[in-house]
Every structure is written in C-alpha cells, then in structure tokens.
Specification:
Largest sheet: 4 strands, mixed
Helix content: 25-40%
CATH topology: Secreted effector protein pipB2 fold
Structural class: alpha+beta
Strand content: 15-25%
Number of helices: 4
Length: about 180
C-alpha cells in the first residue's frame, strides 16, 4: 500500500486541520490535527527534512537552510495541486480502516530506517493510527501542504523550515581548510 493522495484543509468549525490520505489500494485515512499537535508535529517534520544526506553534509547553517529551501521549492513544483481529492468511483467504495469519523491525533514519531527510508507514525493517544514511509519528495510535499493550510488559519503559528538568523548576529566565519 502506497500513498496515492494527501489533502490537508482547515475546518473552521472544528478549528482543526483535516488530513486525508488515500492509498493505491483504495483505503482512506482521516485525521484531525489540533494547533498544539501541529506545532509539535512540525518540529519533528523539520528534523526529518534535515536527515536528508544533501542537507546533513553542509557544514554551516546558512548553506543547510539554502539546501532545504531549494529542495522544498523543487519538490513542491513536482506535485500536482490542480486535482481535487479523488472521491471513490461509483461502485468502488473506498475502505475506511479507521472508520468514517476522523481520528484525533495525539502522538507522532519520525524515524529513519537502516535503509534510509523515513517512517512517519501518526496515532491517537489511544487506539490505532498509521505508519507510513516517506521519501524526501513526499516529505517535502507533505510539509508544504501543512504550511499552506496553517497559513489560512488564525492560529498565529509560523511553520518555518528553519529559524531565521538574528539581524544583529555577526556573520559566520567561513571554515578554513588546510591542504
């Protein structure tokens, strides 16, 4: 089972984000993300983005941030945002393994397997959730969708890929290399 589509949208009545994931085997998972959970999830997602080899190999923070920006922009362009979330075709009902009502998320864990694949686990405080594998591309697309929807809320939450350097901070010294 692989991820087919991801949708995140703000529900003003619930004051929560609704995350919908559909899979290639016609399953759909629905989750509520609260403001508090989203802030905690964001910290973990940024850490997962920083696990990427191209980011980790950079020596200084400014270069790491630039690589993150370039990846985020590049991968975001690869996604097709023009399609709406596909509803199941008539006669082919989508399976809802966790039920029709969205599950309120309370726990998340990100980890990197030995083979380099990243795993994101999303679970309620009690009960069943999902564990999904995310390549770098899908992780960047997921974070982009999350950032865009949080920006539509009145949560006063800034989901930045990295903390901006203070304006009065001295310029970082370029590392020296001895030959």
């Amino acid at each position: 089972m692989a991820i087919h589509q991801i949708q995140i949208r703000f529900d003003e009545t619930e004051d929560r984000l609704l995350l919908r994931l559909s899979t290639t085997d016609h399953c759909e998972f629905r989750f509520w993300l609260t403001r508090r959970f989203t802030r905690r999830l964001w910290t973990m997602l940024v850490q997962m983005l920083e696990w990427d080899r191209a980011v980790k190999q950079q020596l200084d923070a400014q270069t790491r941030n630039t690589v993150l920006d370039l990846q985020n922009e590049g991968y975001a362009r690869q996604a097709d945002y023009s399609k709406g979330f596909e509803e199941p075709a008539e006669g082919a009902p989508r399976r809802l393994p966790l039920g029709e009502a969205p599950v309120l998320l309370g726990k998340a864990e990100g980890r990197k397997r030995d083979d380099g694949v990243q795993m994101l686990s999303l679970h309620p405080l009690h009960g069943t959730g999902i564990d999904m594998t995310l390549d770098t591309r899908l992780l960047h697309i997921f974070t982009r969708l999350l950032r865009e929807q949080v920006a539509t809320t009145d949560w006063d939450v800034n989901l930045a890929l990295y903390a901006p350097a203070p304006a009065d901070a001295p310029a970082a010294e370029t590392p020296r290399t001895l030959n």
